[in-house]
């Protein structure tokens, strides 16, 4: 028997777990690693093992160093570059990929100057560590909001974008430099956190080539290998990049049900140099994030639902699972989403109505 290919994942959250799950049928030995707990023995890394990460940033520990210094840590330097919004936005500018206008918030940056450049509302974003809308601070001219002193040199300022909606593209780049993509997903964020995605949607088809062009430019420019996600604002027929994630992404979870290769398997195939062709769509899907809610077994009584429960402690605003709903037809979506509306708390009513509207 040939030895199983091992893939170590820096981080052991839900993304690592779902990667391990996806690797199993291909007999890939995927091992998510807890890098936070001190006192873990040295990992038995082999010279042919492959290392990836499920997060852009990690604290320095004996374990994280051991993994990140391995010669097969794929995309190594790219993580730090994309984890800092300053270097990420600089990259987009260098590659001429459209993004929301921005600048660094420096020691002497004045609120008035920012409003002059960007208008009444300006969004400050911490350079590192932000996620799910954390690490954001709105400057509003009318309310004379000021830049928090400890955000200077630690944040960028961005123009508030009055977008029509948010979409994202998940793609892969292979070791021989081919770029392949899933169809665009339509995303709904509430309070900075992703609530739901729908993909594919025929009304977004005309944007697919534009999005693919942008993400190809980025992945080729970085000589990247594996799955990358690009979050965009749609303004009419134009896309602006909001941010990039050098990893599998929440807005690609629908591919677990909707495609013949999920984003998790696609990432592993690219890392392990296995054959890859364009992922085929099985059927349209709706993905609903489970945020700050207790597990409810009624969810899996829905005809078209697949539940992914992350087994994390439930806290307000924390992603603790997701539901993939196949959307073969309108009636199926209406039935399931109708039931969810009865079972889910108040903050879900608007996102669930948003889904119904898309399928009306
Ligand atoms: P993630 O969890 O995806 O990493 P994040 O919290 O790090 O997200 P962003 O994706 O930059 O940060 O912002 C979260 C959400 O805030 C966006 O999806 C969008 O809804 C809103 N947002 C971000 N930037 C802007 C902007 N310039 N103008 C208007 N809304 C914005
Ligand atoms: Mg985001």
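^ Assign residues to that structure.
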């Amino acid at each position: 028997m040939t030895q199983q290919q091992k893939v170590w994942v820096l981080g052991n959250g839900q993304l690592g777990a779902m990667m391990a799950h996806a690797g199993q049928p291909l007999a890939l030995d995927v091992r998510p690693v807890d890098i936070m707990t001190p006192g873990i023995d040295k990992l038995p890394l082999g010279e042919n093992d492959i290392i990836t990460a499920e997060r852009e940033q990690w604290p320095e520990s004996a374990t994280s160093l051991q993994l990140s210094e391995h010669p097969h840590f794929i995309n190594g330097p790219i993580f730090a570059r994309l984890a800092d919004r300053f270097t990420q936005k600089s990259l987009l500018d260098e590659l001429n990929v459209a993004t929301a206008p921005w600048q660094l918030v420096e020691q002497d940056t004045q609120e008035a100057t920012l409003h002059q450049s960007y208008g009444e509302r300006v969004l400050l974003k911490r350079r590192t560590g932000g996620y799910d809308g954390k690490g954001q601070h709105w400057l509003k001219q009318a309310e004379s909001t000021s830049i928090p002193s400890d955000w200077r040199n630690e944040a960028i300022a961005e123009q508030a974008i009055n977008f029509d909606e948010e979409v994202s593209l998940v793609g892969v780049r292979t070791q021989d430099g081919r770029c392949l993509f899933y169809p665009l997903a339509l995303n709904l964020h509430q309070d900075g956190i992703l609530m739901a995605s729908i993909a594919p949607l025929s009304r977004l088809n005309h944007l697919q080539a534009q999005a693919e062009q942008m993400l190809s430019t980025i992945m080729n420019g970085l000589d990247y290998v594996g799955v990358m996600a690009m979050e965009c604002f749609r303004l009419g027929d134009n896309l602006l990049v909001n941010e990039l994630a050098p990893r599998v992404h929440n807005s690609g979870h629908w591919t677990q049900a909707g495609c013949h290769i999920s984003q998790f398997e696609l990432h592993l195939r690219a890392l392990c140099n296995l054959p890859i062709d364009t992922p085929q769509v099985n059927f349209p899907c709706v993905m609903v994030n489970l945020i700050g809610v207790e597990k409810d077994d009624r969810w899996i009584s829905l005809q078209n639902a697949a539940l992914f429960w992350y087994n994390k402690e439930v806290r307000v605003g924390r992603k603790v699972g997701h539901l993939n709903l196949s959307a073969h037809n309108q009636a199926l979506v209406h039935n399931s989403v109708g039931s969810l509306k009865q079972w889910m708390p108040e903050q879900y009513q608007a996102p669930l109505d948003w889904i119904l509207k898309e399928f009306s």
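The pocket of adenosine-5'-triphosphate (ligand 1) is lined by residues 100, 123, 125, 130-133, 158-161, 166, 189, 192, 231, 242-243 (CB under 6 Å).
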